[in-house]
Amino acid sequence: MRVLSGIQPTGRFHWGNFFGAIRQYIDLQHANEGYYFIADLHALTTVRDPQILRQNVRDAALDLLALGLDPAKATLFVQSHVPEVSELSWLLMTGTPMGLLERCHAYKEKKERGIKADAGLFTYPVLMAADILAYDSDMVPVGADQIQHIEVCRDLAGSFNHAYGETFVLPKAKVLEESAKVPGTDGQKMSKSYDNTLPLFGDTKAIRKQIMRITTDSRPMEDPKDPEGDHLFDLLRLVGSQADIDAMAETYRRGGFGYGEVKKAVAAASEEYFAAARQRRAELEQDVDYVDQVLRQGAEKARGKAADVLARAQRACGLR
Ligand code: TYM
């Protein structure tokens, strides 16, 4: 099975990125052919500072490698290093109904929040469709917020195939039920644009502080509480051992505890959970050449595949 996914270098990766998506990349790399990329072209819709973008791309590569993406098993590359994808995006664009893009929630949400929309943001799902189709991807591991975009991709591929004959493979989204929508520190979906993220790497003290500031309700301490549907408990479930989770669930049901206790458990468990990756990241930081080499080789391999698919699509629609 060919598996592909992308992630935007718009800032440091957070728990939502990891538990919703990156964890899947790592699990799936063993038994599948994996293509994973850093979506710098997509990031251009929000990051307008070249130095920051460059730094973010490097950080993203370091993070992914430190978390366990293995270049011997999967192909890791930067989206813009494969220009074939942008060409393919144009071919798809000519068959994309405006209404389809107007309904896409990422665009709709940003517009509703008063963020000025440009054509890049509006056509973002078409580039994403090209990303997926360029590698004949069968499966796309993502968080729930990307499902709609994968549906758009299927729609565009289906209508291209209908117009020009079988050209593209129709992909399927793969979402983990228990972490499809990881909550942020305020209980809403964790997202950089809501400023409610818990980063994977960075100063542990600062992260601990962020965890201690997770919002909770103001019910009295002695009230028994239900761990189900409680975002603090949901975060513990992601990083805690089964023993931690069972003990805390029991405490919730009994009542008579402060949320501070749970937050401390979340902080301790997360430090342990990411300790090995932190260590690996510190080592990789010393070997920038290795990281560059991984990205260069990744792009070479990805380009080979994308060029074949682009040529197939060009032939189908009469460009060759
Ligand atoms: P991005 O960069 O916003 O997010 C990267 C991945 O993290 C997942 N994710 C979450 N999962 C669960 N809970 C959360 N709170 C949470 N926040 C983020 C996202 O679902 C995603 O899987 N458009 C994509 C990037 C992209 C792409 C692609 C993905 C470009 N081309 C082709 C797949 C295939 C995006 O903005 O992801």
Automatic annotation (TrEMBL):
Whether Nucleus counts among this entry's keywords is no
Q: Is Protein biosynthesis one of the keywords? A: yes
Locations listed in the record: Cytoplasm
Motif 'KMSKS' region: where in chain: 189-193
One annotated Gene Ontology cellular component of this protein: cytosol
A single Pfam family it belongs to is: tRNA-synt_1b
> Might you give the EC number(s) for this enzyme?
6.1.1.2
Q: Which reaction does it catalyse?
A: tRNA(Trp) + L-tryptophan + ATP = L-tryptophyl-tRNA(Trp) + AMP + diphosphate + H(+)
Protein keywords? Aminoacyl-tRNA synthetase, ATP-binding, Cytoplasm, Ligase, Nucleotide-binding, Protein biosynthesis
Q: Where does L-tryptophan bind?
A: D131
Q: What is its main location?
A: cytoplasm
Matching InterPro entries: aa-tRNA-synth_Ic, Rossmann-like_a/b/a_fold, Trp-tRNA-ligase, Trp-tRNA-ligase_bac-type, Trp-tRNA_synthetase
Positions contributing to ATP binding: Q8, P9, T10, G16, N17, G143, A144, D145, V182, K189, M190, S191, K192, S193
Motif, 'HIGH' region: chain positions: 9-17
Q: Family, per the entry? A: Belongs to the class-I aminoacyl-tRNA synthetase family.
Task performed by this protein: Catalyzes the attachment of tryptophan to tRNA(Trp).
What is the name of this protein? Answer: Tryptophan--tRNA ligase
- UniProt lists the gene as trpS
